[in-house]
Amino acid sequence: MSKLYTGAEIVFKCLEDQDVEYIFGYPGGAVLPIYDELKNHSSIKHILVRHEQGAGHAAEGYARSSGKPGVVLVTSGPGATNVVTALTDAYMDSVPLVCISGQVPTHLIGTDAFQECDTTGITRPCTKHNWLVKDIKELPKVMHEAFKVATTGRPGPVLIDIPKDIQFAKTNYTKFKKEKKLNGKSHNKFSQNEIDQLIDLISKAKKPVIYTGGGVINSGPQASETLKEFVRLIGFPITSTLQGLGAFPGDDNQFIGMLGMHGTYEANNAMHDCDLLINIGARFDDRITGKIDEFSPKSKKVHIDIDPSSINKIIKVDLAIVGDVNEVIKLAIKKINKKQNGLKDSNKQRISKWWEQIQKWRTKDSLGFVNSDKEIKPQHAVKRLYELTKNQDTFITTEVGQHQMWAAQHYKFNKPNRWMTSGGLGTMGYGLPAAVGVQIAHPDKLVIDIAGEASVLMTMQEMSTAVQYNLPIKIFILNNQYMGMVRQWQELLHEKNYSESYSEALPDFVKLAEAYGCKGIKADNPDELDDKIKEMIDYNGPVIFDCHVDPNENCFPMIPSGKPHNQMILGPSDKEENKITGKGKSLV
Amino acid sequence: MSSPKSAYSIPTKKGKLDTHIFVVWVDNESGVLARVVGLFSGRGYNIESLAVAEVDATKNISRITIVTTGTPQVIDQIKLQLKKLVPVHKVADFKREDKNVIFKEMALLKIVAQKKKIEKCLKECKKFNPVVLDKTNKSVVVQITALRREIDKMSKKLKPYGLTSTSRTGAIAMTRGAQTFK
Q1: A149, A313, A561 member nearest B4 (Cβ)
Q2: The model scores a pTM over 0.90
Q3: Which helix (H) or strand (E) segment is A286 a member of?
Q4: Which of A277, A495, B116, B122 is the most buried (most CB within 10 A)?
């Protein structure tokens, strides 16, 4: 008879077989057997967080920057409920997470036992799938299936709930063989015919635009390379969603900036006026489309996505290609090169007028802002941060709000997996723990959380984690003392009734940093900004950088709610022009 | 129209609603019904009726039949979202008007009345394969199988004859002819 292993041992055997190096977690009564087993598995390092939400976001940061699934270990009851925000965040942004939660012993389930909750019930809508393991014999199979579900198709979080008695129970374990090509419940079944149709549309387009999303990043670094080749081959302008930034170099001339609510003038106008729209791995989110009825009214629409349910969910498309982004574009490139040798030149001629139009839009300089020599403008701070860090491989995480949009607008990403932000769920407090996870995955790289003072306080406790593991993360706070995005909406839509969006009694972030045992830097003068940013970068250890910025600055350009792409509010310089004509706030 | 004070867009006009019948083959494991039903409630879809039972004991397969209404886009989404659930094997989707599909519901009707009225009732039921399951001097329990709207009609009709209680199943469906849904 083969050797019998306990449930706790099997958990680790599976993690080892899945090549897991790090787990982010927090112990508690119902997972103690698993924690007890930790010491026997030296290849797996446990990162002790300060709150389970932090564990979830750290695992997200780890997953998004490394391409590997993030693993979370929490206890029953509050441990599980605390991780729900992070699971939902990962679900919305398609991040592969495997969350293992302890549960009260099987015989106590349903009795309202101490720290019991219906974990699988609570997490059912925010995971791709979850399991309550009631039979030890099921455990190895469930563990491996969990990794498969999390990482294949459109990735996402999964949860395995393991009652304490199952962690003690014994069974045998046969070594797991990884399947070669895993596609889970995905459908990589696109046809040659669809690719031919795509190429036909490409060759006929006069005003095309490519709109890419996080799907390109999730398809792996190779997909970004393929995308670059594809875009250069066909010469089309390319815009990206918030999540897709970095898949195509942000400083490339063919890149026309981010699109959507706070996207550039040229990107949104191109979306509106185009005659061919190729969506690659994006999902027509409502922050992108604006008013659905008037979304890109004149275009043929193509949607390439691995998730069939993303297609025609919001926007009806003319050609849907269900498949892995990398595979689809690779085949398209091959076909273009083989069949239509003339395409490259003739196509570029056909769209040259379109490029002229885009150049005209570009001259609006929609990301422009009026700089000041008295106060630090938040946009200026992000720009300086970019200039001073662009020569090294830098990883940026953000919280949620104005600072996030400014970071997306002014920080240029040239590589995938360098930009981690909470887009779908919009979770304030995401960036700091995510930075912890990113730094774990990339110990020698520069990791910066571009933060807002309100967001960062939501998960500030994770600084303690950063200090414990000597993670030199840099928390770059654009401190305007307001929940800036809330304030902006109140200014523009609620008659400047700044209801509860101002934080009185903010902590002294420098002292707070010192209390955590890391370095605090404060800047409130534009002249000292560069030197202080350099000081932050050069410091070998975690830093909280309190950058005091103009509290009244708004994030422009902006598509107001219920408006189509070609009706943007531009920035202050645009407003000034209109003041002269007495028109006030403008719609362009 | 005044501009909405919202960070979200305003709802656009709704399309035409169709009634569809979904047949879903799932692993018969705990929580699977909650996953399917949760998908409907979580995304704001309707369930008009629901019927579920195991159909293959060796393979542990249950067959869920759901009647729902929605715009063509919503119906499409329901189908695609159902297919994404891990325990779901296959999903069939039929329009209610589809002549190639048989839809049936079963109802148990309890009539408490005098003999004469009971007989009238049974006569009315004749079209719908009535089976008398229980009979006393004052009452009868009759089983009928019919379409939803036929049962609706019958319940209305039999009320004056002493129909006191109705219990009915959700619709179940099967295609006509030799083919099976793959």
Answers
A1: A561
A2: yes
A3: helix A286-289
A4: A277
